[in-house]
C-alpha cells in the first residue's frame, strides 16, 4: 500500500495576516511560514498507517517554489519516506493544484491520497475533492477516523449534524479534520536523518497542465474592525446593558 | 443569467441555509432554479417552491442521493449544469463536500464561501481566517460558488414555483453510506440561532456545559464551543465555532471561558453583539467584545441564569 500526502507551505497559524498597503494581497514578507496544520495531520495519519504495517511507503508532495522544500523536509523528519517538489512560482488556484496532483497520482499510483481539508491561507477547502473528481475516485472529506483495509477504507467524517461514516473503494482520497490525530513533533535525530532522504524536483511545466488561474484577485482589504467595547463590573450590569442598551434580550 | 442552487436539507426539512443562499442568488440576478436531491424528500421540494425569487424546483428523489454522497450528487449537478450560468450551494459540510467535485468536472475553479455579490462575476470572500477580504472575479463562463450563509439574510416564503420531478439516478458506485451519529438537540441549530452561547477550555469538562444549557434554554440560544473544548471531548465536533468549524453571526454571541484565538474569532466576529466572560482580563476575546465581564465563570454563570 502506497500513500501520497500533498502538503502546503502557509503562514504559521499563530501569525495574524496583514494586508499590504496597496491592497494587492496579504503581506508575507518576513512572516513565519509553516506546514498547513491540516497537512500535518495528514502526514501523521499516513505515518501511523505505515507504523501499523498497513502501508509500505509514504510519499509527500508540495507544489510551490524552492522554499516549500523546508516543509517537505519536515514531513520527511516526521516519517515520510520520500518527497517530491513540483516546482512552480505561479499563483495557483486549487484546480491547478489538483490537476498537477492528478498527474502525480497517474504516475505514482498510490492506493490512498490524504490531504488537509483546508489551507489556512486561501481557506479554499477544494483541492482534495477536485483531485477525487479528476481521478474519478471516491472521497472521504473532513475525516476524524480512517479505517484502512485491503480493498476499501472506512472514513468517519465530521459533518454539520455530527458524524457520518462512509465506505470507499480503493484507491481513494481522504481529507483530514482536526480530530483525526494529534501530530507528533520531529525529533532531532529524525531531522538529521531526513536530510538524507530522497527529494525529487519536477518542474510544473513538465506536467502539461495549464497553470494560469482564471479567478482574478481584484483587491485584498482589511475586514471592518469592531468598535471598542466596555468592561462591565458585574453580572447585573451586564444584564442591564443587554436589555436596555443593546436590546438583545427581553 | 440562470442559476442552479442546490438545496440543503435532511430529506424532511429544508435548512435555513437554503433560504439565505437564495437571497445571495437573487443579488446575482436571473432565474433561480432550486435542486432538491434526496430520498422521499418531496416535502422539502414543496417547501423550496415557496421561497421568494425561486422560479422552479427540480426534485431528484432517489436512493442514490439519500445521504448526499459527493460522488453521486456531484454527478447529478454536473449532468444538469449545461442549462445554467451559475451553480450555487450553501457552504455547509454538504456543499463543501460535493461542490468542488462539480467545479473540477466542469473545469472551473470554485469560489468558496462568498460573503457578498459585487456583480454577476465578482464576489468577496474572507481569506486567512477572515483577517483579509478578497474581491475576486471569475473569468469562467460558468461560475461555481459556495455561499457563507451567515453573511446573508433569509429569503421570505411567499412564493409559489412549480416543482418538476427529474428521473435521474447517478450512482457512481464508488462510495457507500455506512452509518451516522447525529447530535440530537431540542435547541435551535447553531447557524440558525439568533443567540449563541459558547464554552471553551475554561469550562473544564463536559458536565459543566450544563451551566450554559440553563442560560441557553432561557434565551432560546444554541450552544457552541471552541476547538479546545471539542478536542478535549467536552462536547461533540458539530458544536465547534471558528475558521474551520461553523461560522455564526447571531444577534448575540456569548463567549465563556474562551481566549479568543484568531481561528475562533473567524467564526463569530460578525455577530451583532458579543459578550465575553473570562477570568483573564488580558484575554484577546475582550478586544472584540462589546461587553466584557472579567470574572470566574463558575460564579458568573449561575448568577446570569437567575437574572435573565
Ligand atoms: C488549523 C487550526 C484550526 C483551528 N480552528 C479552530 C476553530 O474553528 N475554532 C476554534 O475555536 N479554534 C480553532 N483552532 C484553535 C485555536 O487556535 C485555539 O487553540 C482555541 O480556539 C482555544 O480554545 P479556548 O479559547 O477554549 O482555549 P484557551 O485558549 O485555553 O482559553 C481558555 C480560556 O478560558 C479562560 N478561563 C479558564 N478558566 C476560567 C474560569 N474559571 N472562568 C473564566 N474564564 C476561565 C482562560 O482565561 C482562557 O482565556 C484552530 C487551530 C488550528 C491550528
Ligand atoms: N500547493 C500545494 N501543494 C501541495 N498540496 C496542496 C497545495 N495546495 C493545497 N494542497 C493540499 O490541499 C489541501 C486543501 O487545500 P485547499 O483546497 O487550498 O484549501 C491542503 O491541506 C493540501 O493537502
From TrEMBL, chain A:
Keyword rRNA-binding appears in the UniProt entry: no
One Gene Ontology MF term: electron transfer activity
Residues that span the membrane, as ranges: none
GO BP: carboxylic acid catabolic process
Cofactor names: AMP
Residues covered by the Electron transfer flavoprotein alpha/beta-subunit N-terminal domain: 23-211
Keyword Electron transport: yes
Keywords: Electron transport, Transport
Any Pfam family the entry gives: ETF
Role played: The electron transfer flavoprotein serves as a specific electron acceptor for other dehydrogenases. It transfers the electrons to the main respiratory chain via ETF-ubiquinone oxidoreductase (ETF dehydrogenase).
SUBUNIT field: Heterodimer of an alpha and a beta subunit.
UniProt cross-references to PANTHER family, sorted A to Z: ELECTRON TRANSFER FLAVOPROTEIN BETA-SUBUNIT, ELECTRON TRANSFER FLAVOPROTEIN SUBUNIT BETA
Family according to the record: Belongs to the ETF beta-subunit/FixA family.
This protein's name: Electron transfer flavoprotein subunit beta
Provenance organism: Psychrosphaera haliotis
Automatic annotation (TrEMBL), chain B:
SMART domains membership: ETF
Cofactor note: Binds 1 FAD per dimer.
Electron transport found in the keyword field: yes
InterPro entries: DHS-like_NAD/FAD-binding_dom (IPR029035), ETF_a/b_N (IPR014730), ETF_a/FixB (IPR001308), ETF_alpha_N (IPR033947), ETF_asu_C (IPR014731), ETF_asu_C_CS (IPR018206), Rossmann-like_a/b/a_fold (IPR014729)
Cofactor requirements of the protein: FAD
Binding-site residues, FAD: 201, 226-227, 240-244, 257-264, 278
A Gene Ontology molecular function term of the record: electron transfer activity
CDD domains xrefs: ETF_alpha
UniProt keyword terms in alphabetical order: Electron transport, FAD, Flavoprotein, Transport
Pfam families: ETF, ETF_alpha
Residues in Electron transfer flavoprotein alpha/beta-subunit N-terminal domain copies: 3-181
Listed GO biological process terms: fatty acid beta-oxidation using acyl-CoA dehydrogenase
Role this protein plays: The electron transfer flavoprotein serves as a specific electron acceptor for other dehydrogenases. It transfers the electrons to the main respiratory chain via ETF-ubiquinone oxidoreductase (ETF dehydrogenase).
Subunit structure: Heterodimer of an alpha and a beta subunit.
Family: Belongs to the ETF alpha-subunit/FixB family.
Protein name: Electron transfer flavoprotein subunit alpha
Annotated source species: Psychrosphaera haliotis
